[in-house]
């Protein structure tokens, strides 16, 4: 479980959801994890949620690593520059970057096609979920090059280029896949591995709240959405990222797009409750028509 001891990681967008699960699992493997985001104990982000980067950092440390919270708005270039300058000064290296910046839930107008969807919200989504990833990757790369290698992971939704039910949402999530593939090509000669990873139906804090359930009684939500039975906790994708970051043969995966469910088969990990959700199989049998 100390396979990442001494490794320096950044989980960009680690306040809650998948980001929190990933940060904690990297900490469990012994990593020093810089947890970034806009929600702190002193101020809420426009998301208006109570989770904070300090809470995530504490969970990382409790799990066995070292969590370091840093308030960063990844759409603001100077704040991202300061983050990596700080890491260089404090650690002298960077081994892992997880790009999980999102914040697009309140900006997505499901059921509204382009032309009817708010243009302002759609463009803001691209700023938060695409531009932020580009800015963060750009300023991380010099540290990776100095280290002669490293791992960049783009967190996305889905494994292909099919539409995801909303023009702006699709554009943001598919962009993460293409960014991973394009960066992998550009950075291969520097031994920098870049991949994209998707969770299945994520049982995040916000999703539980939207259904009016908790992690203890989450199955009650299947009365509202039967597909929730195939959902997974944020720690499932956390396990996936921990396994990938610990894989000595990770270079073979550069440029690829991977899912929690297929990685769970490859690395034989399970979710927090001991189950092994497989959204891919469930989707084919119960959702896709």
From TrEMBL:
Species assigned in the record: Psychrobacillus faecigallinarum
Protein name: SDR family NAD(P)-dependent oxidoreductase
Recorded superkingdom: Bacteria
PANTHER family cross-referenced by the UniProt entry: DEHYDROGENASE/REDUCTASE SDR FAMILY MEMBER 1, DEHYDROGENASE_REDUCTASE SDR FAMILY MEMBER 1
InterPro entries reported for this sequence: NAD(P)-bd_dom_sf, SDR_fam
Residue ranges that the Swiss-Prot or TrEMBL entry lists as coiled coil: none
């Amino acid at each position: 479980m100390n396979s990442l001891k001494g490794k320096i990681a950044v989980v960009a967008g680690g306040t809650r959801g998948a980001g929190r699960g990933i940060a904690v699992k990297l900490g469990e493997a012994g990593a020093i994890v810089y947890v970034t985001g806009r929600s702190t104990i002193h101020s809420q982000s426009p998301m208006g949620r109570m989770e904070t980067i300090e809470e995530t950092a504490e969970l990382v440390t409790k799990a066995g690593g070292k969590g370091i919270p840093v308030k960063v708005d990844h759409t603001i270039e100077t704040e991202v520059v300061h983050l990596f300058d700080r890491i260089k000064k404090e650690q002298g290296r960077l081994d892992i970057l997880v790009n999980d910046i999102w914040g697009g839930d309140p900006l997505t107008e499901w059921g509204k096609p382009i032309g009817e969807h708010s243009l302002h919200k759609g463009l803001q989504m691209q700023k938060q979920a695409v531009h932020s990833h580009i800015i963060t990757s750009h300023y991380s790369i010099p540290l990776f090059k100095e280290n002669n290698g490293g791992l960049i992971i783009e967190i996305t939704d889905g494994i292909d280029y099919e539409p995801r039910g909303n023009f702006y949402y699709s554009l943001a999530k598919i962009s993460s896949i293409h960014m991973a593939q394009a960066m992998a090509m550009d950075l291969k000669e520097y031994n920098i591995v870049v991949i994209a990873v998707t969770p299945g139906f994520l049982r995040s804090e916000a999703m539980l709240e939207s259904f009016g359930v908790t992690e203890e009684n989450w199955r009650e939500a299947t009365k509202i959405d039967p597909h929730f039975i195939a959902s997974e906790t944020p720690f499932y994708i956390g396990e996936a990222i921990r396994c990938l970051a610990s894989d000595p043969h990770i270079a073979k995966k550069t440029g690829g797009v991977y899912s929690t469910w297929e990685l769970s088969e490859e690395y034989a990990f399970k979710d927090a409750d001991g189950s092994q959700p497989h959204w891919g199989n469930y989707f084919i049998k119960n959702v896709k028509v």
